[in-house]
Amino acid sequence: MAWWCLTLLLIGTLLAVLTQPDALLVFPGQVAQISCMLSPRHATIQDYGVSWYQQRPGSAPRYLLYYRSEEDHHRPPDIPDRFSAAIDAAHNACILIISPVQPEDDADYYCSVGYVS
């Protein structure tokens, strides 16, 4: 019993905690920047690969892009190049950049991370 509790405790300390803004108001033609901030008690954001997803009402999440660095990133061919990302090391965050914003970009955006060793 004690072994299971210790295992769960150790696993819990390894999980990344991400924070995103609740909402962002941007008008067509402007630049949207959405942050995905990694909890400071974990490794730096550069140690993680960040995937971004878009979800429109009534639809399944759509994969937008993966970003770890200028040298390590991927955007599928069907995703417009208006979608990009960058690292904000000062805030331990990855930023999704949409430029310029279009009306069809009205959606929820989610990030996920995977540790890269």
UniProtKB/TrEMBL annotation:
Source superkingdom: Eukaryota
Signal sequence segment: 1-16
Domain Ig-like, chain residue ranges per copy: 29-117
Pfam families to which the protein is assigned, alphabetical: V-set (PF07686)
Keywords associated with the record: Signal
Protein name as catalogued: V-set pre-B cell surrogate light chain 3
Source organism: Molossus molossus
